[in-house]
Design brief:
The chain contains 5 helices and 5 strands, in the order ββαββαβααα. It has about 150 residues and is α+β, with helices and mostly antiparallel strands. It has 2 domains: about 20-120, rbstp2171; about 120-150. It has a 3-stranded antiparallel sheet. Strands 3-4 form a two-stranded antiparallel sheet. Strand 3 (about 50) and strand 4 (about 55-60) form a beta hairpin. Helix 1 (about 35-45) runs antiparallel to helix 2 and helix 2 (about 65-75) crosses helix 4. It starts with 17 loop residues before the first strand and ends with a helix. The model has no long low-confidence stretch (mean pLDDT about 80).
């Protein structure tokens, strides 16, 4: 029996995450990455990666140093003094003028709220994958058994 499809309505009206940020006395809004920003980030993250004989990354792409700053610049907005909605993105040169540790912390938070950090090969991530795979195997076996009973 085919798995039932979820046809329930979906709403993303209030789904955008925004965080108030202060850097060197200036106020900003950090907004989760939109489709364009996340696509550019992910494309640049894999661009130039070479795989070794074991199938693992043998070297980082040449643009690795720019990734975080570019992602931040595409998602950070200046808070106007008159408290109107933030519409002006921060320019890349501004982000580059900040301390490295500030850029790294902002990038980590931004990747987190935008779901851009892959879980990677951690024990927890692999155990989660195994658990999900076992659950799916049970579901498939039950479906197959139900077909054979018909």
């Amino acid at each position: 029996m085919p798995k039932e499809k979820d046809l329930s309505p979906m709403s993303f009206d209030d789904d955008v995450i925004e965080i108030d940020i202060s850097v060197l006395g200036e106020q900003y809004i950090l907004r989760e990455a939109n489709g364009t920003a996340s696509s550019k980030y992910q494309n640049k993250a894999v661009e130039g990666i070479r795989l070794g004989s074991q199938g693992k990354a043998a070297n980082l792409p040449n643009n690795a140093g720019n990734l975080n700053a570019e992602l931040i610049a595409s998602c950070l907005f200046v808070v106007p003094e008159d408290s109107s909605p933030p519409i002006k993105k921060v320019v890349l040169a501004t982000v580059y003028s900040w301390p490295h540790k500030t850029i790294e912390k902002l990038a980590k938070r931004l990747r987190d709220i935008s779901d851009l950090d892959p879980e990677g090969d951690t024990i927890e991530a692999l155990e989660k994958e195994i658990k999900e795979a076992r659950k799916r195997i049970i579901e498939l076996k039950e479906e197959e058994s139900a077909k054979n009973d018909d």
